[in-house]
Amino acid sequence: MYYFRWLLGFLHLLVWGSIILVHAIPPPDPVQCNRTICTLSNSYGAWGDRKDCSVKSVVYPTTEEELRSAVAHANKNKLKVKVVSQFSHTIPKLACPSSLGHHDSLLISTAKYDSSIEIDSVNLAVTADAGVALRDVIDKVEEAGLSLAAAPYWEGVSVAGMISTGAHGSSWWGKGGAVHDHVIGLSMIVPGNESEGYAKVKQIAAQDQLLNAAKVSLGILGVISKVKLSLERGFKRSITYNFTNDSSIENNFMEHGKKYEFGDITWYPSKHTAVYRYDSRVPMETPGDGINDFLGFQSNEILISKSVRASEKLFESTKSVNGECTLADTTLWYKKQIGNGLKNNGQIFTGYPVVGRQGKMQTSGSCLYSPKTRIDASCAWDPRIKGLFFYE
Ligand SMILES: Cc1cc2nc3c(=O)[nH]c(=O)nc-3n(C[C@H](O)[C@H](O)[C@H](O)COP(=O)(O)OP(=O)(O)OC[C@H]3O[C@@H](n4cnc5c(N)ncnc54)[C@H](O)[C@@H]3O)c2cc1C
To answer: What confidence score (pLDDT) does residue 151 get?
Structure first.
């Protein structure tokens, strides 16, 4: 019992300590090369040593023509080829050209193909290069007084990686919360014959049946070079979390989804607790300049991440139900205190509802932007530390 009380106290201390934390290490580059070989890893640490994915070479195109040339080179030389973004966040090992060895493989990284974001305010659309970061698109769109209605919660994704994997937020309204359902066109580079220079750019428009397959193709139909997304007039959201008893959750969830445009429920079965997110669109004039700096995507002190992982492992191996429950209580208690990372004025959580612009309320990932100068914090799952990990 003493140990659990100690643990609780320790975690509270660390957790509160993390509020004042500002410096941390940004995620590692998923591609690492030495003189003879390159290794691709997953930024979440799900896979990534030399045995998992090694490739002979990696290219970093900066324009659509360079991207086309890379596909042409692979086609002409019969190389196995895959694309990866600067983030490499998807958990299955889909971006690896070959698990059998590296001799005939080429990896195309879109990390440097990220310069163009074109907004068409009249037709409410944005077209971005495949490698552009989601956050850059959101910020540009919001600057133009518009909003992207759907986006994943995690912002560390590229535009093409995000649609290719069917990444989503939460909504049953309108076109729904999956980003690929808001795609209204794309350009894809596919192999061609010799007279076509071994690769060609195919434009796929909204009415083209092929769009349904191409937009969620996990990188196997071709290399997406540009993505066109539909937009809406800028709007704000009002969010309140209700931490409550989970009784009747099976009856409540349909109503919840119908009532709140961006509704969401987090269920903690062992705590008999459900956290209902009351989340609705409100007009731009509504006062409030809040942000959703989701707790799970903030920088964490490395010591906390390691301690939590070590405690989980200990409780798991000793089958300690009390330990697991104490840890769960602490996490839930803390999430409640800080509104899960909502910040009314962009700095701290002072109470519900928190109102802010769509671009600041849907998607977050502040652990991505940590300066390299200090090394005491990181994204909680950073594979360089033995931090948090969810087995999916
Ligand atoms: C901490 C964390 C939080 C997450 N949160 C969410 C979330 O809120 N919602 C959600 O839905 N998912 C979430 N995910 C999953 C992940 O973010 C998505 O799978 C995301 O789409 C990955 O994007 P990426 O740019 O990193 O793509 P990558 O991992 O680089 O690539 C993903 C796939 O797309 C292909 N691809 C990449 N670029 C191209 C291109 N130009 N042309 C063709 N194919 C291409 C790759 O070959 C690969 O098959 C999360 C993952 C982590 C680790």
So the answer is: 98
